[in-house]
Structure formats: structure tokens, C-alpha cells
């Protein structure tokens, strides 16, 4: 394929790719040391959606917003979905939260007490009701369940309890709804996390059925883990349901995706593109899961979307024919060079051109800054309590 044709093919694919935004990225967040407030931060889910819609307005590829329950509880979820629609966006995945209620100190779906497990299962059923009211098709489950000390509880009994609880939640889904199960290797539990890795998550979702898949949060692995290998394995099994994109330098840092290691993001997107999983019907949801503790939130989300888009663009520019020929003939350095050529390409002109073709400003950040929206919300949103993750 000629390079010019490849560019056009890349642009066509990029027009189709969508990136889902986390509602919580627009609220205040922080570390265990301090949560810094920022002027203009949303005070309710309606305002979060308004801010998220700005990201879509300037990037053109972020039309869905994921909610977190109970952080985003409202009385009228149909009204919230209509508000989203009026803003040109949709409600995406619904995240459950079984990590902030006092009852869940020793776990939720794995808790030794059947009463607490039932409470955690009921919370997920409430999330399914939110999905019905908002038109969301995906339930996202992340469990903080785990142990701090050897001997604290039975490792195997906890897996059995999780399997049983998940089966009950899965059975509560409608036929056109899906479940995704996220894993994380540590924190808040320090000795064992009950769903620590992709293997454990995969075993659980395979036991549930075809509508259950794995979520890969890029910040949830031990340092040095080869994430693109996991991506390749999950794709082979048809079980990669979603990404939670973010960057980490140390642990679960939740920094902007592509900030810490843009090359890793490219390698991940290369696996995705190689498998055709960037196509909208692939079933892989490209989500962001980030917290903007010190940087302004809307521009940070815009930057993150652009980072995913640029990594995808580079992956789409890989000269597949030459790469395959080099791989098959054992040309180690030749094959590597093909990949690096794509990675080293400056794709910023390509995505700027794409935006112009889509009727957007070629520079989303500058366009957002010029719009005066940040000043407007800072002036308007006075009084009330700013949204935050309340840790
Ligand atoms: C967890 C996990 C979940 C996210 C929460 C806020 O570490 O990544 O996806 O919902 O944080
Ligand atoms: Mn996550």
C-alpha cells in the first residue's frame, strides 16, 4: 500500500474510533494527602456531563461518558440521559462502587458475611437499573476486595464467593447488556487482591458467559509488565472488553494516558490495530480512567483523547506488508525498523487535517481556551459542593 493511501485509510479509521470519558475526571480528586479544589468544578452529574461534552465538541471523538455509582446518583436518570443527548453525548459504562461503604472493609463480593455479599450484589443490581434508565449497555466492575495479612481469610473461599456473587449479578443483566471485570494487582489491599490479574479476571468472565469480558486498566500492573502481550492474549480469546487508559510512573498514578510512556501506548495500539480491534464493532471500549489532581480537568481530558488518537494514528501507519515480509524472513532489525518508522512519524499534521475535514478546529486545546468556557464555569459555579471522589 502506498504511503498516501495508508494515510487516507488511517484517517478513515480515526474518524470511526471513539474514546469514552470518565465522569469522575471532571470532579476534584487527589491523594491521601490532599484533594485540591479547582474553580468551576462541577457540583453534580449534570455539570460533569456539560464539561465532558466540551471535550467531545473540540475533539469530535469522545461521545460517551461513563458514570460511577453512587458518585453520580441522581433522582432522574432518564433526565440525565436526555441532558447528555441535548449536549450531543451519551451515557457510557456504569461503574459500580463497593469500596467506600463501611460495610465493605473486609470485602464486598468476597466478604465472609453473606449479608454484606448480598448488599454488594444488590448495589450492582441498582447499577443495572441505572443502565436501563440511561440506555447504557455495560456494567463495569472493579473490586477492591483483598487481604492485608496472610491467614486473614481463605484465598479459595473468597474466589468461590466472588464467582457466586458475579453469577448472580450477571443473571440480573438483560440480554443486550454486558459486564466487564477489571483487575488490579494491589491497593487498597496490600497482601492479596482477589482479582489481581488478567488471568483471574479471564477465568471469572469465562465462567459467566459470552457477555462478560475483561477490563484492562493500564495502571493496574506491576512495573515492567508487558501490557501489549496481555492485550494480544485477551484479543485472541475475544475477551478484551475495555481499556481504562491512564499513565503511571510508580503505581496506580492515574495520570494522563500517553504522558509517562507514549511508546507503550503505541505498542498497545499496534496490537489493537493488528487485530482490527480499533473498529467500532470490535466490542473494545477505549475508556479513560484518570484523575487530574493538579492540572485543569477539561484540557487534560482533551490532551488525553488526543494522545490516544495520535498513538492510534501511528499504529495505523505501520507498513504491514513490509513488516510481515520482514517477520517471515527472519529480518529482526528490518521488522523492528518498520515499527519504529511508524512510531517516529509526526502524526500531528494528519490528525489536524482530519479535524478540519470533520469541521473542527485543528487545535482543540487552543479552541477550548479561546471559547472562554473555563472562565464562564468558574464565574457561574459558585456555592454548592464541588464533586469529588470523597476519599
Ligand atoms: C479504581 C479502578 C476503577 C475506577 C476507580 C475510581 O482503581 O481503576 O476503574 O472506577 O478506581
Ligand atoms: Mn480503572
UniProtKB/TrEMBL annotation:
Please tell me whether the keyword Manganese is annotated for this protein.
yes
Which Pfam family is an annotated match for this chain, by its short name?
Answer: AP_endonuc_2
Domain named Xylose isomerase-like TIM barrel: residues: 78-270
Has UniProt tagged this entry with the keyword Metal-binding?
yes
- What keywords is this UniProt entry annotated with? Carbohydrate metabolism, Isomerase, Manganese, Metal-binding
Query: Can you provide one Gene Ontology molecular function annotated for this UniProt record?
Result: isomerase activity
Q: Which domain of life is it from?
A: Bacteria
Q: Which NCBIfam families match?
A: RhaI_grampos
Q: Specify the protein name.
A: L-rhamnose isomerase
Native species of this protein?
A: Promicromonospora umidemergens
Which lineage ranks, top first, belong to the organism behind this chain? Bacteria, Bacillati, Actinomycetota, Actinomycetes, Micrococcales
Amino acid at each position: 500500500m502506498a504511503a498516501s493511501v495508508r494515510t487516507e485509510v488511517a484517517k478513515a479509521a480515526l474518524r470511526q474510533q471513539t474514546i469514552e470519558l470518565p465522569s469522575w475526571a471532571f470532579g476534584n480528586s487527589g491523594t491521601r494527602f490532599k484533594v485540591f479544589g479547582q474553580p468551576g468544578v462541577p457540583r453534580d452529574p449534570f455539570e460533569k456531563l456539560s464539561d465532558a461534552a466540551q471535550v467531545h465538541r473540540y475533539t469530535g471523538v469522545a461521545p460517551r461518558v461513563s458514570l460511577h455509582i453512587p458518585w453520580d446518583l441522581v433522582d432522574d436518570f432518564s433526565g440525565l440521559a436526555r441532558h447528555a443527548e441535548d449536549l450531543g453525548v451519551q451515557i457510557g459504562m456504569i461503574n459500580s462502587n463497593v469500596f467506600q461503604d463501611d460495610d465493605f472493609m473486609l470485602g464486598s463480593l468476597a466478604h465472609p458475611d453473606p449479608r454484606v455479599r448480598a448488599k454488594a450484589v444488590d448495589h450492582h443490581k441498582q447499577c443495572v437499573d441505572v443502565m436501563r434508565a440511561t440506555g447504557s449497555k455495560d456494567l463495569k466492575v472493579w473490586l477492591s476486595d483483598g487481604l492485608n495479612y496472610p491467614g486473614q481469610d481463605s484465598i479459595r473461599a473468597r474466589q468461590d464467593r466472588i464467582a457466586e456473587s458475579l453469577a448472580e449479578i450477571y443473571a440480573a443483566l438483560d440480554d443486550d447488556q454486558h459486564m466487564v471485570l477489571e483487575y488490579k494487582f494491589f491497593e487498597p489491599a496490600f497482601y492479596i487482591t482477589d482479582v489481581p490479574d488478567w488471568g483471574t479476571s479471564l477465568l471469572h468472565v469465562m465462567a459467566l458467559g459470552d457477555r462478560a469480558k475483561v477490563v484492562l486498566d493500564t495502571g493496574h500492573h506491576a512495573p515492567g509488565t508487558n501490557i501489549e502481550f496481555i492485550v494480544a492474549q485477551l484479543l485472541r480469546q475475544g475477551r478484551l472488553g475495555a481499556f481504562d487508559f491512564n499513565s503511571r510512573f510508580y503505581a496506580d498514578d492515574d495520570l494522563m494516558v500517553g504522558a509517562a510512556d507514549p511508546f507503550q501506548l503505541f505498542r498497545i495500539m499496534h496490537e489493537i490495530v493488528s487485530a482490527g480491534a480499533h473498529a467500532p464493532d470490535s466490542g473494545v471500549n477505549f475508556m479513560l480512567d484518570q484523575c487530574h489532581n493538579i492540572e485543569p480537568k477539561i484540557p487534560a481530558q482533551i490532551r488525553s483523547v488526543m494522545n490516544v488518537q495520535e498513538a492510534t494514528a501511528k499504529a495505523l501507519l505501520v507498513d504491514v506488508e513490509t513488516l510481515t515480509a520482514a517477520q517471515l524472513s527472519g529480518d529482526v532489525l528490518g521488522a523492528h525498523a518498520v515499527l519504529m518508522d511508524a512510531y517516529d512519524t509526526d502524526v500531528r499534521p494528519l490528525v489536524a487535517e482530519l479535524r478540519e475535514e470533520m469541521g473542527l478546529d485543528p487545535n482543540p486545546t487552543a479552541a477550548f481556551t479561546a471559547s472562554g468556557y473555563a472562565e464562564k464555569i468558574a464565574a457561574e459555579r459558585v456555592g454548592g459542593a464541588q464533586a469529588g471522589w470523597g476519599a
